[in-house]
Amino acid sequence: MRVLHVAAEVYPLVKTGGLADVAAALPPALAAAGADVRLLLPGLPPILDAVQSAKMVLDIGSAFGALRVKLLLARMPGSHLPVYVIDAPHLYRRAGGPYQAPDGSPWPDNLRRFALLGWVAAHLAAGDADIDWVPEVVHAHDWHAAMSCAYIADHLPTPAASVYTVHNMAFQGLFPHHDWAMLGLSSRFMSPAGLEFHGQLSFMKAGLKFADRVTTVSPTYAHEISTHEFGFGLDGVIRGRGSEVSGILNGIDPQVWNPATDAALAERYDAQRLDGKQRCRRALQQQLGLEVDEHALLVTVVSRLTSQKGLDLVLGALPALVPAGVQFAVQGTGEPALEAAFRMAEQMHPGRVRVHIGYDEARAHQMIAGADAIAVPSRFEPCGLTQMYGLRYGTLPIVRRVGGLADTVADGETGFCFDAASVAAFEGAVRRAIEARAQPATWTAMMRRGMAQDLSWAHAASDYLVLYAAAVRSRAETPRLAAG
Ligand code: ADP
Ligand code: GLC
């Protein structure tokens, strides 16, 4: 099966969140399961820098208002998977994030930047961009790649089927209606049955409406997005796709996240040699300037600081939990108000709360290895990777029972779950963790259970292969010719 993955970020080159980890780890897992997999990425500066020996596959010329657009083919550093990169200097070669300018505002030309990504994917699918390799399935991730599905549907007959994965329903890629003409799509796509969403253009809907199959990154989130509470206005569209929507749980990269080989740690360890973790714990307390306290419950948070992540619950519970013996080690970046609130919490609880506002991969490993528990109190969580890193590192997750958190953490067995999005509910779960840690045999058994959990990508890869086959069959049987 030839599969093209389309994404806007990939670890370690460009990463704003878990999507990058998935784009890096799922394609090699599919290749290991026998698929012939390639990636398509926008030519953002770190990606172009990493593929300097790329060869040109197609000189596209001008597209979406950009001159000198080229399609390159190279190998991913690390996995060596073939990767197509769109070199469009005018749209992609600039300092700043993949979606936002340095001041945090979305790039004003995001419509053209990500329409181009989908348009190139559709040309690869149609066989007119690279005659040597034509995918049978185009797998598009999040709204950035979703236009692939609309362009494929518009360019029928295309032999390729399309699969769209929602990593986060909250980010939809909405643009003004009057930019419609720039997309170059047939007019039938511009209706509520197509890309229109309350008078705007929705890239997310291009995926939800026109992909042959829609997936999300955990079974529980697949159900949740069909409800008003979690659907961000698109729950009706999800319900309309019926059984064509499913959830496949992410895995984690066992090479990048392995306490037995992790070069970032003060000492490596595994389920049989847990003293190494105690040394990581002490090293973390010393490094961060936390009191070296054997009895504290050391809780870490490694997260984007946004309202999705429910970290206001952590802030609200600190005044009660710190006197109860809890230490917090927090690393994150995001909304200025949350950053400021965490900085203030650090000042109020010297030696007990330490906060690093910033993004640092090595330190994320050290914090997850050195802590006793990792808190993920999200309001919603499509999958969540850090609780799985916690499981693998013997760092018990304290999570709200939503989305992928509910699907990966077993309450009282491998971690602690709570239901209400309230300070009291979070505090209650942390207090249960304090009690459990007071019984070393119970705690160690929980750690070992979590460390033994199979979090590899192998299950997801085999589920995706079954799904791809179904998508190819349904594309052959009922070509999706028009919107509606
Ligand atoms: P999301 O994609 O919603 O942010 P995930 O749990 O799926 O949540 O993935 C987050 C990823 O980003 C993880 O790999 C996590 O370790 C990483 N991460 C988030 N914030 C930071 C940070 N400040 N420093 C280092 N890594 C971070
Ligand atoms: C999104 C979600 C997160 C998920 C990640 C990878 O960023 O917020 O829950 O783990 O995508 O699928």
What does this protein look like?
The protein is of the alpha/beta class and 484 residues long. The chain has 2 domains: 2-251 and 458-477, Glycogen Phosphorylase B (Rossmann fold, 3-Layer(aba) Sandwich); 275-452, Rossmann fold, CATH 3.40.50.2000. The protein contains 17 helices and 18 strands. Strands 3-4-5-2-1-6-7-11-12 form a 9-stranded mixed sheet, with helices on both faces. A 6-stranded parallel sheet has the order 15-14-13-16-17-18, sandwiched between helices. Strands 8-10-9 form a 3-stranded antiparallel sheet. A hairpin with a 2-residue loop joins strand 3 and strand 4. Helix 1 (18-32) crosses helix 17 (458-477) and helix 9 crosses helix 12. The longest helix has 20 residues, at 458-477. The chain is globular. The model has no long low-confidence stretch (mean pLDDT 96). Residues 17-19, 21, 302-304, 331-333, 359-361, 364, 383-386 line the site of adenosine-5'-diphosphate.
